[in-house]
Design goal:
Length: about 425
Amino acid sequence: MRESKSIEFKLKISDTFLKTVSAYANYGTGKILFGIDDDGNTIGISNPKKRCLDIESKINDNIKPKPDYSIEVDEKKQIIELTVYEGTYKPYYYDSKAYKRNDTSTVEMDRLELSRLILEGDNLSYEELKAKNQSLSFNVLEKLLKEELGVKEISKDILTTLELYSKESGFNKAAELLADENSFPGVNVVRFGDSINVIMDREAYDNESILAQYFDAIDMFKKYYQYEEITGSTRDAKELIPEAAFREAIANALAHRTWDVDAAITVYMFKDKIEITSPGGLPKGITLEEYLNGGISIPRNRIICNVFLRLKMIERFGTGIRRIGETYRDYVMKPQYIVTDNMIKVILPVLTKSEEVLGDTEKLILKILKENGPKSLSSTTIAQKAELGKTRIVALLNKMNQDGYIQKTGVGRGTGYRAL
């Protein structure tokens, strides 16, 4: 057994474990095992039953508000297992500070994280906070509501129905984002040439409605990834990247990003792909696997998502990734998704139908992964099946993952690869 984000070892009972109690109560249930050293060796602790009282006293006296927890004793191994449950009344403080887990360590959370936690404890989201600017106009929103829903004109009643306005608080942050003018970061679009050192075009869509940002980004997309092909007397519309995929990706970036971070959404346009990066990782409560497989959705910005849904800018919640995947169903190179705690990047490759761009070994790897179905294979297993050296296989796997032919899953010893 090793230490992880949800498991910590403590050889002795000292006040330092209280930081981790705060972290687990704030961000997710976890265990602290007393009597085990940092390397995972069971050393034991004297009088474990009696020492449980020390643990309880320290938690009850020092963590505010009091968290939920349970304690078990393994008398044979002489260790104590403390389970701290994620709480409802966040944040949970130790010595007037709130903590979180950062991989296998416990660190004090910064001001932004603490603000988010306070909102969560009050069952609020950032978009629900009162807008600083209460003099807002909604010409862009009104135009779209007229086109999609047949609304004659926007009114306070309609804005109240959309949860953008209340008599008690006025306009909220979601309303400010949808208003014709705002002070939030927008979408930065850059078109590169043969390298990132060659910038062919650049636009920054700032301080305007996120609805306008959506359509501005699409116009830029059409400029570089759509064209007409004339054959005889016919003129056929062609696209290098599916417009439906780009629309879904940019709508998701606007609707689901964290808006309390002063950073723009970036759209990097290359000859062979588009990279769309939005601030903020996955919403709490959804795993990477659930995000990639679709079917489940926990909107970070529920009010904005509902407006986008009414305007048919996004489909039913939880189907975005599937819809993007559908547009690439008949093509070899597939979209890629890179997710960290602080950002989500969607990579849309230029449409490629042929596998001729792959070498013989890459084709063999792709064949092995396709035969294995949706499950991942380790690089060791792939090397054995391909009867080739692992070092070469790993290099090829990483390149194929980067190019969008396969998907890398897991980390460390749990790293695997599967066909897209």
